[in-house]
Write a structure and sequence with these properties.
The complex is a heterodimer. By secondary structure, chain A is α+β, with helices and mostly antiparallel strands. Helix content of chain A is 19%, strand content 33%. In chain A, a hairpin with a 5-residue loop joins β8 and β9. The longest helix of chain A has 14 residues. Chain B contains one helix and 14 strands, in the order αββββββββββββββ. Classes of the chains: A alpha+beta, B mainly beta. Chains A and B meet through β1, β2, β4, β5 and β12 of A and β1, β2, β5 and β13 of B. β2 of chain A pairs parallel with β2 of chain B.
Chain lengths: 236, 183
């Protein structure tokens, strides 16, 4: 940067021929910076030997004038000098999380011999997520681990997941026969929420899930059948 | 100029494409919320008999007449696996099956039933519900699927024999009860 400054300065200053030899020391001091190119006009004048020496009393005055000129002459690069970049490593971790709370934790059914029974209460599901992504999806599933036996009496008599249905937020009842990342053939997808940065990468929602069991065609013996419905979400 | 036009198309397209390309990231699974389900199927035996309208008999002074229609009975049950049989009975509450209400009666011995077209028999067999009945069926259960089952329809053809009763002309009414029992 300093080299460029000297070069431009020389290009724009008109020097009297008789003063070049006196000026030379100042230029030499300036040209010591790497990359300095001596102006062609200056070189010619010095080689010709025609320049006259300044009177000794004028030397400080000339230097002062030149100093003022250098100071006032606009420079392309100005005074900007950039240092090397200093790297500071930053590490900020926002853990991804998806949390589900469901209540009540138990639902009962008064089954009939050959028909449909509705669960005692709907399940309220609260889903919260913090997902540090630009965009993606949060998908929630309800599922049984086994399609063949969503509920069982423990004596070999089972209610398959296909005979259990769920109604999400009052929608139509759907049998647990779908596929999810957690169970194949015994799931239903509750919702698929699109996530967009700044809008809902962190959010909470509450939904309801009503359940029904159909004993039609099952020929179940009288008894108590128990099972566990799992609710789980996945962000991706 | 050509470059500028291309840029107007390409640059926004790239921005849109970048916006919809999912970032490479791992899946995050939530905790699992568990809902315990308990479904109870209680024991039950249900009998449905038709017709709902009364079965009528056009009696004759001394002979046998059939009822206006057969009784049709469907018996269904859901039973615990500890049960071994289901029995269906048809019976009258007393020895007098029908009465005119003034002391003139038709006893159960003069009323017969034919189950599913078999030979008719009087309602004089003792059962869990009295001494004036007959067994319609005795179904053993135990195999898979038999604990929750519907039997029938079974038919009972009724007949009244007035022979020897010397009944006065009148209207005689009575109630035939049909009931099942699981053992």
């Amino acid at each position: 940067m300093a080299a460029g400054r000297g070069k431009i300065a020389c290009r724009h200053v008109r020097y009297p021929k008789q003063s070049l030899q006196q000026v030379l020391p100042a230029f030499r001091g300036f040209s010591c910076v790497a990359g300095y190119t001596r102006p062609r006009r200056l070189k010619t004048s010095l080689q010709s030997g025609t320049a006259k020496k300044f009177p000794s009393g004028c030397k400080p005055a000339v230097l002062l004038i030149l100093g003022i000129i250098f100071a006032l002459t606009p420079s392309k690069a100005g005074a900007q000098i950039k240092s090397n970049p200093g790297a500071v490593n930053l590490s900020a971790t926002l853990n991804s999380s998806v949390t589900i709370k469901a209540a009540p934790g138990a639902v009962t059914f008064a089954l009939i011999r050959n028909g449909v029974a509705t669960g005692s209460v709907p399940v309220s599901i609260t889903t919260s997520w913090v997902v540090p992504v630009l965009f993606g999806n949060v998908t929630e599933y309800a599922y049984f681990t086994s399609p063949a036996s969503a509920l069982t009496d423990g004596g070999g008599d089972n209610i398959p997941s296909g005979s259990v249905a769920g109604s999400f937020n009052g929608g139509a009842y759907t049998a647990f026969t779908g596929t999810s990342p957690f169970a194949a053939g015994s799931s239903i997808t509750l919702f698929n929420q699109f996530i967009l940065i700044f809008f809902n990468t962190s959010a909470t929602r509450t939904d309801s899930l009503s359940l029904q069991i159909s004993t039609t065609g099952l020929n179940l013996p009288a008894g108590t059948y128990t099972g566990v419905l799992h609710i789980q979400a996945q962000a991706n | 100029m050509r470059f500028s036009k291309k840029s107007l198309i390409v640059v926004p397209a790239l921005i849109v494409a970048m916006a919809f390309v999912p970032a490479s990231q791992a899946q995050v699974n939530s905790n699992t919320a568990n809902i315990n389900l308990t479904a109870t199927l209680g024991e039950s035996v249900t009998v449905v008999a038709t017709p709902a309208a009364p079965i009528t008999f056009a009696l004759i002074p001394n002979g046998t007449v059939n009822g206006s229609a057969n009784v049709s009975v469907t018996t269904s049950w859901a039973l615990a696996k500890t049960r071994t049989s289901v029995k269906l009975y048809a019976y009258f509450a007393s020895v007098n099956a029908l009465t005119d209400g003034t002391g003139d009666n038709i006893p159960t011995t003069n009323v017969t039933g034919s189950v599913n077209g078999t030979a008719a028999a009087p309602f004089t067999t003792a059962g869990p519900f009295g001494a004036n009945g007959m067994m319609v069926f005795n179904q053993a259960i135990g195999a898979a699927g038999t604990f929750n089952f519907a039997h029938g329809p079974d038919t009972i053809g009724l007949a009244i024999n007035t022979t020897g009763l010397a009944l006065p002309a009148a209207t005689y009414t009575g109630v035939l009860n049909i009931q099942a029992q699981a053992l």
